[in-house]
TrEMBL record:
It comes from Gimesia aquarii. Pfam families: DUF7885, LRR_6. This is Internalin-A. GO terms for cellular component: SCF ubiquitin ligase complex. Residues 21-54 are annotated as: Disordered.
């Protein structure tokens, strides 16, 4: 058997021929050459992508102006915030010395259209906030080449619908803030309806009405919408009924209980604002299926204790605003299982000491507003299990020094409001000695 195997191998050698010593080395030589070339090429590539360092004089200039900066691990400025600084248009010439800048915030009337001439050169920017500046349409036109922008805030600027012609051409824009621009109206909405990547749109205090919302509803990937004012009614909710929204802000609008039925199938909703809307128990019955809801504002609505039963299953809530509503102790019974609540607003409600007993089980609360409620010193005992409380508003209640001293057990308190109570200066001083990290306002 072994002999047959040897003969077979010899036969294969004769058929294929013996390998030439020179040709056998050629592939290795080529491999080594190619490897060396690749190594050189990679070296060149690595050298090519090495980020340019910042100009020290530019960094120092912004520091001197009072700017806030955040740096990369190797010390390059990635985020520059000029809000609160003394910077003006002419100071933006120093942006040229920050080649890696990705996020920029300018703020205030000292920034005009001239500012955008320098900003337009920062091609790496993906975040640009120009809130409360004097920038108008001409300034926005200067930004046309910033194709990497994903977040743009033009809140409270001097823009009109013409600026939206440029904004609509930013291919990667996901978040657009147009709030407090009175020249933005329905005529501008057709310009942005084709923005395929836009997920967040803020329109509070513009002149956009139900009519303009027809175009907003066509945004294919809209997830978060902020609008506001008496120009918005149930018609808007009907237009939005098929959208997969996760956040909807509708404060101070003309919507009603009838309109809220269009939200019934929005089961992915995480935040809903209905402050100062004329909605009540029949309307919020449509919220029962919003099991992912984390933030709910019902301030100054006509929701009653009876309607609170529709909210009892919303156990993912972390922020519930019931300020200035008609809710009392009976209604609070329905929130006792909301164990994830961190913020609770009960300002001006019918809450009494009995309501505080219910709240005592919400041990993740960090902020609690009880201003103008009917609580007493006796009820404050129920707040003592709330060890995570950092903010507590007891203004316009009947609290006295006796009740205040009970609160010394809440060592994490950072802010305590006691305006128009019966607490005295002496009582405050005693409390501050026991909880020195807490700022007391009275």
């Amino acid at each position: 058997m072994k002999m047959k195997a040897i003969l077979s191998l010899l036969g294969l050698c004769l058929l294929s021929g013996c390998p030439d010593s020179n040709t056998s080395k050629t592939p290795d030589s080529k491999a080594k050459s190619t490897s060396a070339e690749e190594s050189h090429s990679n070296k060149q590539t690595n050298e090519a992508v090495q980020p340019k360092p910042d100009a020290p004089e530019a960094v120092q200039a912004f520091k001197d102006l009072g700017a806030t900066m955040k740096l990369s691990d190797d010390g390059r400025v990635l985020i520059l915030d000029l809000k609160g600084s003394t910077a003006k248009d002419e100071d933006l010439k120093h942006l040229a010395g920050l080649p890696s800048l990705e996020r920029l915030t300018i703020w205030g009337p000292d920034f005009t259209d001239t500012a955008t001439e320098e900003i337009s050169k920062k091609k790496n920017l993906w975040y640009l906030n120009m809130e409360s500046t004097a920038i108008g349409d001409e300034g926005v036109k200067n930004l046309a080449d910033l194709k990497n922008l994903q977040v743009l805030s033009l809140r409270a600027t001097n823009i009109t619908n013409d600026a939206l012609k440029v904004v609509a051409e930013f291919p990667n824009l996901k978040d657009l803030d147009l709030r407090f621009n009175k020249e933005i109206n329905d005529e501008g909405m057709p310009l942005i309806k084709g923005m395929k990547n836009l997920k967040v749109l803020k329109l509070q205090a513009t002149q956009v009405t139900d009519e303009g919302m027809k175009n907003v509803a066509e945004l294919p990937n809209l997830q978060r919408l902020n609008t506001w004012g008496r120009n918005i009614s149930d018609k808007t909710l009907e237009l939005l009924k098929d959208k997969n929204l996760v956040s909807l802000e509708l404060d101070d609008t003309e919507i009603s209980d009838e309109g809220l039925k269009h939200l019934k199938d929005m089961t992915n909703m995480e935040a809903l604002h209905l402050r100062r809307d004329f909605v009540g128990d029949p309307g919020i019955a449509n919220l029962q299926g919003m099991k992912k809801l984390q933030t709910l504002h019902l301030r100054d609505t006509v929701v009653t204790d009876e309607g609170m039963k529709y909210l009892s299953g919303l156990t993912e809530l972390t922020y519930l605003d019931l300020d200035e509503s008609m809710i009392g102790d009976k209604g609070l019974e329905q929130i006792k299982n909301m164990k994830k609540l961190q913020r609770l607003g009960l300002w001006g409600t019918e809450t009494t000491d009995a309501g505080l007993k219910i709240i005592s089980g919400l041990t993740n609360l960090t902020r609690l507003n009880l201003e103008g409620t009917k609580i007493t010193d006796e009820g404050l005992d129920y707040l003592l299990p709330l060890k995570k409380l950092e903010y507590l508003n007891l203004s316009k209640t009947e609290i006295t020094d006796e009740g205040l001293q009970k609160l010394t057990a809440l060592k994490n308190l950072k802010e305590l409001l006691l305006s128009f109570t019966q607490v005295t200066d002496k009582g405050v001083e005693k409390f501050k000695a026991a909880v020195p990290g807490c700022k007391v306002k009275r």
